[in-house]
Structures are given as structure tokens and as C-alpha cells.
Amino acid sequence: MCPVTIVSHQTNTDLKLKKTDFDVVVIGGGAAGLTASATAVSLGAKTLMVEADRLGGDCTWFGCVPSKALLSLAELVRCGDLRRDDLPARLWAIRERIYQHADTPERFEALGMEVLFGRARFTGPGTLAVACADGTTRDVTSRRFILCAGTRPALPPVEGLEDVPYKTTHSFFEMKTVPDSLVVLGAGAVGVELGQACARMGVEVILVEREPGILPAGDPLWAHHLDPVIRRDGVRVLTSTTVTKVECAGSGTSVRITARRAHKSQTHVALDDDVLQLEADMLLVATGREPATRSLGLEIAGVATDGGFVKTDATGRTSNRRIYAAGDVTGKDLFTHAAGAQARAAAVHAVLRFPRKYNGDSIPKVVYTHPECASLGMTSAEAARARTEGKDVQTWSLALSSLDRAVTDGHTDGTLHIQATRRGRILGATLIADRAGELIGTVGLAMQQRIPLSAFSELVVAYPTWTDGLRKLGTQQAISRLPTGLLRLAARLLRLRGPKVGISPDEVV
Description:
- Helix 1 links the parallel strand 2 (about 20-25) and strand 3 (about 45-50).
- The chain has helices spanning about 30-40, 55-60, 65-80, 85-100, 105-110, 170, 190-200, 220-230, 300, 335-350, 380-390, 405-410, 435-450, 470-480, 485-495, and strands spanning about 5, 20-25, 45-50, 115-125, 125-130, 135-145, 150-155, 180-185, 205-210, 235-240, 240-250, 255-260, 275-280, 280-285, 290, 305, 310, 325, 365, 370-375, 395-400, 415-420, 425-435.
- A five-stranded mixed beta barrel has the order 2-3-4-5-6. Strands 19-20-23-22-21 form a five-stranded antiparallel sheet, sandwiched between helices.
- It is built from 15 helices and 23 strands.
- The longest helix is centred in the last third of the chain and has 17 residues, at about 335-350.
- It folds into three domains: about 5-55 and about 105-155 and about 290-360, 3-Layer(bba) Sandwich (FAD/NAD(P)-binding domain); about 160-285, FAD/NAD(P)-binding domain; about 370-495, 2-Layer Sandwich (Enolase-like, domain 1).
- It is about 30% helix and about 25% strand.
- The chain has about 500 residues and is α/β, with parallel strands linked by helices.
């Protein structure tokens, strides 16, 4: 159980200072901070953005950009179009190009805000001290603050970890050479993405996960379909396995890992554990994230936290009514697109008091593996439980082997599932396909606009495309609602001579 910090409301937290330096001060220049700052200044607010390191945050330097670049570059290496030794330099070049295009201080200063590099700490409910890079301290006051401090890698309590040259996502992409062998601790989204990418370019990869399956936080269908695929790519998967000790091996550049793999009988009674000895050139720790709030002085500001994550309402407001929070620091939906949505809601409310709210139910979750895994709203497992409870939930499914584009591309590993009511109101989707991350956006728009699943049957899409899979699912649902009795009567009246009336959903073309 994470510790909960409860802070009573300051009696003066909602009082406007007679004179403040800024309308909005944003702490953090990552995905949430950049969005919050740009939104605030576009609404006419005098805005300051404070960043301790480099603009762009985890997404540009350690997360989305380098990891997705690695996936593409790994495919080039696998096909022989890029030398593995040249990959690190190409990774750095891509990050730098994204930064220069979107995340430079000059770009945001040109929007009309001030950018200040330094470490921020609250000195009161409405005051901030920034320890600047030049050694000076600047005191700042503002009507509103938006916390976008983000997270950092969380390290597991493993004996010897501090004494070995391990990597996290903050250092993995700084590698000078690609290792010949890699052990990844944690089979969540990051571990599986990077592990599969490395395996596809010839690295010996061992994936270690303490839970019974990979991607434990995702839809169970993800692991069901993806586990055999990554094994086929050469990843050795060790689930129900806990690392107990790590130490240097050989000349000190490689790592030896001791782990225990639990076994259970069919009656779920624990049997003797296996003790495993693993060795690799590189150890990557991908066991989750923790909030980067320790040095912000949140207690002084009257901001309540839960396990270090900032507690907010749907608008992003914290227990101090003048302070908002957005992005990973809230512990809600740790995705860049979620951070942007939270930041826009918080900035609009902070500046205009307009009650724009963040809706976590509309946030798609995507794992960028081959095939990609995506979900939104009700999962397949939740749909199955709902049906056992007698609720109006149906699941429409399409195997990729029935989708012509998947067949032509040779990528038929996966399936498309959409959960809907009998009348077609879409409740959620689970997509496992090469373009799942793109397709889930179309499903999200339909959910947001309350477009029924059957409407997809009227969609005329280019052939052959992945979107045709959504059309097929819509047609399945539309066919299920056809009045077959009336069709038979019409066929008799019109003297139609076909062998049957109606088709089953499985016969959709």
C-alpha cells in the first residue's frame, strides 16, 4: 500500500495575490509541460515554464521518440539495410532532429512565454524559488501553477544492483554499441517493446517478469497473442520469475543475474522454485516509474499526494486550489497523449476557469510491438465478465487471416475485437494488428461521437487497407440485426431464386 500524504487546505490558498509576476507558471518542460505552457499562452496568460534539464522530457529523450525510432531501425538492421554498429548514432540523430523541430526554448519563447532553466521548489502556497543553472535563485509568484514534473525510473530492491552497470530507459538510448546479449527486468510495455526490437536485430534477449505473463497491466488478449510471437523472434521469456541478486561478471562489463522461478501445481500450490543463473552484456531495468516530486516542496504548498503522485480532480486541480497538475506526475494513464489531454484541461481551467475535464475512459493504450497491441474502453476480459452478469454486451471479432491487407503483408498474427451493446453502442475495443495504434483512433472517435458500430458497414474504404477490418466488424453487427423473417417474406413475394436468405457474420466480405 502506497503511503498517502493528506494536507489540510490552506486558508489563503484561493486568495489572489495583489500583484504576481505571472498568470501561470508551469513546472516541467516535458509532454505535459509543453502542452500546458502553449495552451496557457495562447489563451492570453503571461506564462513562465521552468525546466530542470532539457525541454522535451522523457518522450523526446528517453521514451516515445527513441523507442519508436529503435523499432524502425531494428527492422532496417534485420533486413540488412543498416549496420547494427551504426544504430546508436542514427538514434541520436533522430532525437536531435525532433528536438530542433519541436522542443527548443526559442520556439516556445517565440510564442510569447518565458523559459527558465532551473530547479523549482515551493516556498509557500503561491510562491516558488527557482535554483537557476548559473547559481542564482529567482523567487517567482503566480496566480496559478501547473505541476508537470513527470516521473523517473523506479528501481526494484535487488541485491547488488547499485554495484553493476545497469541501464534504465534514461540511459539505454545513450549506448555507444548494441550489446550481443541483453537481460530485461520487467515485461511491461517498455520491456517487451525494447526486448523484441533488440531480438529482431540479432541480440540474445531474456525477458524476466515476476507476474505469470507478459504485459500484466494490459488486456489479457495482448499477452495471449504476443507471447508466442516474441518467442518466435528469439526472446526467451521467463515469467513468475524474481531477480534476487546481480553482480559483475567476467571483466566487469557483463552482468550475472540470479533469479528464482516459481512453479505452481494444478491446484495452485507453490512447489520448489528453480534457481536460475543468467549472464548478459547488458542489464536493462524496466520495472515501472515513480513520481519526480520529492524536491518540489509540495507539503509547503499544501498539495496532497498519494505515494508521491499528485492527487487531482477531473480538471487537474490539486488540494491547493491555485495549483494544478498534469501528466505522469498524477499517476493517471502514463502516456504522452494522456499527458497532453490532462495538460490542456488543466491549462484551460487555470486560465479561464472553464470547467473542461479530463476523461481517462477516452485514452487509448498502445504497445508498439510487432504486431501492435491497442485497447480503449471496455476490454475483452471485462466484456466476458459483463456477459456472465447478464449485461447487454456483445463482442465482435475478426481474425487477421480474414483481412486481405494482413494477408498481402504477411502479418496475420492478431485479431480485432470490438465490444458493443445489442443496438451497436461501442463500449470498447481490443486490437492486435500491425496498424492497431492507428485503427484505435477511429474507434475512439466513434465512441466519442456515439456513432454505432453498424455505421462502419457504410464506410467505403480503399482496398486493401487495414481500416477494412473495421468495416467488416461493422457489417457483422449490422447483419446480426437484419429482420431475416421479413427478408424471407420479401424473397417469396418477389420470387427470388437464391438458395438462402441472409448470411452469417462469419461470411462477411
